[in-house]
Amino acid sequence: MATGGVNLSKEFFELLKAIGESKSKQEEDRIIAKEVVRLKQKLETPQSGGMGSPAATNQLLTSKKRAKEFLVRLLYVEMLGHDGSFGYIKAVEMAASSSLFHKRTGYLVCSACLSPEHEFRFMLVNQMQRDLQSSNVLEICGGVLAATALITEDMVPAVSGEVMKLIAHDSDTVRKKVIIALHRFHQLAPETVTREDLVEKLRKVLCDRDPSVMGSSLNVIEALAAEDATVFKDLIPSLVSILKQIGEHRLPSDYDYHRVPAPWIQMKIVRILGIVGKADAAASSGMYEILMDCMTKADVGVNAGYAVVYECVKTIATIYPNPKLLDAAGEAISRFIRSRSHNLKYLGVTGLAMIVEGNPQYAAQHQLVVMDCLEDPDETLQRKTLDLLYRMTNPVNVEFITERILEFLRGSTDLFLKNVLTKRVCSVAERYAPNNAWYIRTITQLFEVSGDMVKQEVAQNLMTLIAEGTGDSEEADMLLRQNAVELYVGLLRDKPGTATKLPRILLETIAWVLGEYGYLSAVCTLDDVLKELCALASVKARLPNSTRKFMLSAVFKLVSQAGTCPPHAATVIDEYTRSKDTDLQQRCLEFQTLLTTAPQILSQVFPVDASAEDLAVDPNLSFLNGYVQQAIANGARPYEKPEDDDDDDDFMDESATNKGSGFKMTPYEKPQTPAAAMAAMRGMGGATPSMPGVSLPPGAGYGASTAPVQANTGAPGAVQLNTRNVANVWGKPQAAAAAPAPPPPAATSNAFASPGASSFGASSTGTNPYLAAAGMSSAPAPPPEPPKTAEQLEKERKAAALFGGMIPGAAPPPPAPASAMSAAAARAAASGATPVAAPAPPPPPAPAPAVEIDLLDMSAWDTPAPAPPPAAAGIDIFAAAPLPAAAPAAPPQVETVSDDEEEAPAGGLAAPAAPAPVPPPNPIDNLDPFAAEGLLGDVQDAPLASLSMGTQKFEFNGVPLGPLEITTAQFGQQWGSCPAVAPLEVQSSKVTTLNAFMDVCSNVGAYKVESIVSTNEGICAGMIGGTHVVLIHGKVSPGGMGAKLNVTVKSTDPSVTGPLAMYMQTLLR
Amino acid sequence: MIKAVCIINNHGKPRLAKFYQSVESEALQQTVIRRIYQQVAQRDDTFCNYLEGIVPELGDNVKLIYRHYATLYFVFAVDSQESDLGILDLIQVFVESLDKCFENVCELDLIFHSDRVHYCLDEIVMGGMVLETNIGAILQSIKDQTKLHKDSLSKADANESSSAIRERIGTEQSTWQYNW
User: Is the Cβ pair B51, A242 closer than 8 Å?
Assistant: First the structure.
């Protein structure tokens, strides 16, 4: 026994040596496995001899040593990733030992090895409680440490009481640990150790006589302040005073580190100041002086000092800006960035990225150094520099910066980084593109390097741009298209045989562009282009079916343009008639039939350069009238309109006579198939705008122009199954419009059900069936989602025009209110992004006033009259811009039907009668819910008669706004489906914090759904009279005197948004 | 918050691994350690001591701050609440404390007395928060413990000695007063 201790150590030594020398993971595993066996054996052998034996003392020593070593070895085994659970019980046993020495080892092993939900943790609670009550300081410390490491949510109540008491303990070692332990408890069980408790304790501890206790409390304060800084605002003077005393070397000299007084405490305080001073001019002003002071004093040329300086820089960048401090920070950054130490360079680049957005002038002087950093072999530094570049991008340097990032992307294999950079390239390219040709080139390169990491909508956007051009001049647009074609033909030719390895997204874009505009190429003939495409589409290539469909659609288009079908194209098409994919098969069969039976109409089915044209659709299916008549003549029963079906005219009459509640608040129906079908036809890439020989009833125009809108607004409901609050403004009239010309459902069904040949055969009476059938099955359909980017791009381009150049201070607010209508028109004209459904300025006469209003009349916000809300509601019933966001968003829909939807009609469902099984893509869903902000520019800045900020609820027609308790997710769903928007921007000195804003919303009567402190955004929801949903989104940002509030009010009822927005404006101002 | 502290040698063998945020399983901990090593080991000593975005297991925005001493990498995984340079100096403090504790610390010390390394770290970082940065105070706590350990080994009655120590600590309390 006497040699036992030595033997054990030797064993342990051998083990470590063996592991140290092991060559492979497998060998190490074997060694550890052996060790585990040995340890298990030890556990089973009795620990020590019987009591009262002569060698008792000695044995006790040995066994304790043995026991401790056993645990240390266990720890080692666990650290190498092996299971040591057999020995856990020993560790728990040890924790209960009377000897502190063993206790700590026991606790240590438990905290390192026990998983969070391990049952042994509960066995330790008793022991911890005992230790916490001990009279021995070290035992208490051990207990607190163990509690911090081992406690779980359920166990908090058992120990929190004891720990709370210890905050007043005599020993500073205990106090400083207790405060951290309490924070841990608060994180685990906020209802047991509440935030209020903790804050109160923190306030006491911050004034502790021992600096290290104060120091540890700062950590906790920072953590809590990061969640919500308001309660700590009054601590600013104390913190400033502490910082000042530290700066004056009032702390004992052993707190100095490399001659800097208590650097960590300084850093913490400076960081806390940054958090509480964020976006708060008043709070910030109290810390300017000390920050300057602190920064100057800490700058003594050692790392610890730089650390403090760097924290000061960060704080200066976050608090309410002060020019003098910013200059000092800029200076410090420039010294960091020029330093030879990589660490300081890193900090310099990070710091510069922080201040550069608001103050680009600081970046200018460092261009060369930044370039050096970009070339640096240190990847961390490279990444930081890329981040910096992204933030300092402006229209002038965008080409250079994008090139750099693309270059980096080419060389990088890090997926995470690639993803981030890809998004950034998209973002800067959209925001700052100097011209369209550059944009197309850049995005194409991005497709090449990042492939499918690029979002589909970017490709969509690109195609929209190519299709629609800038709208400035037709020649310029054609040149642009030609450039794109040459670019893509070049791409295909550069990679003979390997082109199919290009990313899917690029191939699809190429296919679409070549299909649409291949004829523009100057370097090769249409036939050459066709050859390239056929080679791509040949069956042998490994391509996803969706890509093949793109290819084939392009081939179809080129064939119809050429007027003849060359053999290679014929072969490819023929091969695909045997495709496993039924859709592909059908497309090819249909095309073959068209080609052989009616080649003369191919040019109508595949019109040249018409992807951006509007498409007239006859929702009444009047072209079927002849068929219907015939069916009736043959004895079929005529269609009977359901009783409760609202007629279009009734609906309008009602709204005219009863202005207050003229809008239907019943839910949307699922989108009707016609919408999908129409969209599909649009997706097809063109059709003749009006059908010869088909008379369009008034309802037709209405249906056509609202189709995209309906698709937009109807879909969220369908997708989310949340149709409750979505008004049925568009859904029902659609059905009603179909009613006047009632084709028997069966008949329609027949017409559409027979695919391919039969429908073509029957079509000699008019062109519509061709269009319908062909459109349904062969849309080149780049998948959905363009609206967001199209609109965003548009907005961002405008922003670039306004804020471009990054000249500080030269960013005038967007000139707001001309007429919103003309703004919409201007938007439509300014870029090609919006054209199709953005209605032609002269509104079509009569048929559908509602539509006109929706799309054009957004004028309510020109001049917010300071009239009392209800009155305004009465007057402005239609004026409040029901769909300003949806209208511009709609057009890209034109090309966005995914292949899936075409199945619906082809599958034999009667187009108008059947509810669409697949909801059309939903652009609004993709819209950034907050993107509508500021669409209509500023609200007038004239002071309004201010209302007291009391607890008055907003009332609409005498009905008060009541809270609507929903979750953020529900809010998000409803946001997309609320047609009426009223954004406002208020400069407020009264409401400067997010909480204050939320309170205002709550006073108005809305329910606080969520406040997002990190971005200073808040959302609220309310309901008026059980029908009108009201959604409010607000963002608080610092600016001028007080704060700038960007608020967006949305509602299902356009007559509510206006008055409510005005009401809120008065309250907020 | 400090999410994890690791000491790894030049060959990738862990010498200390402490996780302040529960990482789900042992296997995951091993992944984290391995990933940290792979990244850290490729880096030239002249590079900066920061690494970003490589240990998603520990959460978003976790940054590795490390220092390389002779045969060992000391790696702290921290979130955005910690100061970049501050942690770098904290590692230095940790190493200096170990050095004082073991009298010229070397890798073998860390292997054979891994428990003491843990205790030392416990005095500096607790529950992911920086507890103490004053080397003097850190060493004093460790000394007290070691003393107690020795006492408890040599005397059967541990309580007696610990109460003696408590008295001693009680008299050593800082007499320095603040007026904030």
Answer: no
Report the chain B residue with the minimal C-alpha distance to residue A56: B156
How far is C-alpha A977 from the chain's CA centre?
18
Residue A619: half-sphere exposure toward Cβ, Cα within 13 Å: 29
d(CA A802, CA A784): 30
The tokens describing B124, both together, are 């500096």
A963, containing H or E segment: strand A959-963
CB contacts, 8 Å: A252 with chain B? 174, 176
Q: Are strands A980-988 and A1043-1051 parallel, antiparallel or unpaired?
A: antiparallel
Q: Give the distance from residue B3's alpha carbon to the nearest chain A alpha carbon, in angstroms.
A: 13
Least confident range of A169-183, A921-935, A999-1013: A921-935
Inter-chain CB proximity B30 and A255 less than 8 Å: no
pLDDT over threshold 60, residue A929? no
Q: What size, in residues, is chain A? A: 1069
- Segments in A211-322 forming alpha helices (H): 211-227, 236-247, 263-276, 281-285, 288-298, 303-318
Q: A695 by DSSP, 3-state: which?
A: coil
Rounded CA Rg of chain B: 18
A55 touches B at CB < 8 Å: no
Cβ-Cβ contacts under 8 Å, A81 against chain B: 26-27, 29-30
Query: In three state form, how does the secondary structure of A314-371 look?
Result: HHHHHECCCHHHHHHHHHHHHHHHHCCCHHHHHHHHHHHHHHHCCCCHHHHCCHHHHH
- Using CA coordinates, name the residue in chain A closest to B155: A57
Contact A180/B53, CB-based, under 8 Å? Answer: no
State the ipTM, two decimals: 0.84
CB A430 within 8 A of CB A789: yes
Q: Which of A66, A380, A414 to mutate to test the interface with B (most CBs of B within 10 A)?
A: A380
Average pLDDT over residues A30-51: 70
Give B22-52 pLDDT, tens digit per residue: 656 667 888 888 888 988 888 888 888 898 8
A62 band by pLDDT with thresholds 50, 70 and 90: low
